[in-house]
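Appendix B: a complete holo record

For completeness, this appendix reproduces one full record from the ligand-bound portion of the collection. The bound molecule is pyridoxal-5'-phosphate. The inputs are the chain sequence and the ligand SMILES; the output is the full three-dimensional arrangement of the complex, encoded as structure tokens. No fields have been trimmed.
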Amino acid sequence: MRRIYLDNAATTAVLPEVLEVMLPYFTKVYGNASSIHAPGREAKRALENARRQVAKALGAAIPQEIYFTAGGSESDNWAIKGVALAHGKGHIITTAIEHHAVLHTCQWLEKQGFAVTYLPVDAYGQVTAAQVEAALRPDTILVSVMAANNEIGTLEPVAEIGALCRARQVIFHTDAVQAVGAVPLDVQAMHIDLLSLSGHKLHGPKGVGALYIRKGVKLIPLLHGGAQERGFRAGTENLPGIVGLGKAVEIAHAHLEENASRMTALRQQLLTGLMARVPDTRLNGHPTQRLPGNVNLSFAKVEGEALLLRLDLMGVAGSSGSACTSGTLDPSHVLLALGLSEAEANGALRLTLGTDTTAEDIDAVLDILPPIVADLRRLVTR
Ligand SMILES: *Cc1c(COP(=O)(O)O)cnc(C)c1O
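The structure of the chain with pyridoxal-5'-phosphate bound, as generated:
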């Protein structure tokens, strides 16, 4: 059976070129980057090369503003807890549609005595800089707004929010895990103070990520121990992962425009094809200001989980607008924040393209999906 993977927002395949540069760091260049001998120095050189690759793609002023972590979740936790605990008290502004790595971190901080405002979003999933401005308080220490949403693909106005925060001297963090390598980003032009990214969402390895920390931003370390990452993130560096992350970011950045235009065209082919073939279908998220590879649809009278299982039987991997926790469907907090009903949220299907998705993949899904929806609807009405 032909397998079609359209769940690239969950994770992506490692590019062969990325795997190739990683391999020597398991068996040949295995020195500890903190050691002073030749193998250690060689590891250190690879570490600093990866740091330069990431810094360049983000437009950082200096490579030392890049800190390697174990992924997007750690970067989000570090950015938010690091700033909050450095201040000791204060107010944080975020949005209702953030990834759980941001939302659950903010909820934990509320239990520690911090105040948090969760901004609502419009029907497309966007917040405005004016909303952020209206929520600012004299004790606001941090604003955290994602660059692109992982479920609906909606892009947020990070440049406007960054400019506002800089003018008001409030630290601005953005979870750019879905955006890096997919849409243009420049931490200096956009006045971003802290930015989270992750390797496995951009055709790099899992379990490695980075946090951009603008020079001068005060935050405390989360991990204490050795002096790695200039004393800010203890633990022997995941060198193969970091080398892979650097290469994946470099490749994504070099091919950003061509990938974005090809994937946008494929996404539109998938979207218009499904809208034409399946009645009572609505697009979730913004029609144009969205990630190139994201399609999120609600099919009336269809359970997303049932649809996913049927698609899986036909070799198509997607994702739904709900998570199954102990036998009951938990509709997505993102779709509910857009104003969807629980039934609409439970009928959502997310199909996300990678840079390796082909026109044949899309054609196959256009053949496979419509009859499954029709069949599921027949079962409901019988
Ligand atoms: C995947 C994701 C994360 C978490 O990244 P991990 O590397 O899996 O920990 C955080 N934020 C967003 C928007 C994501 O898509």
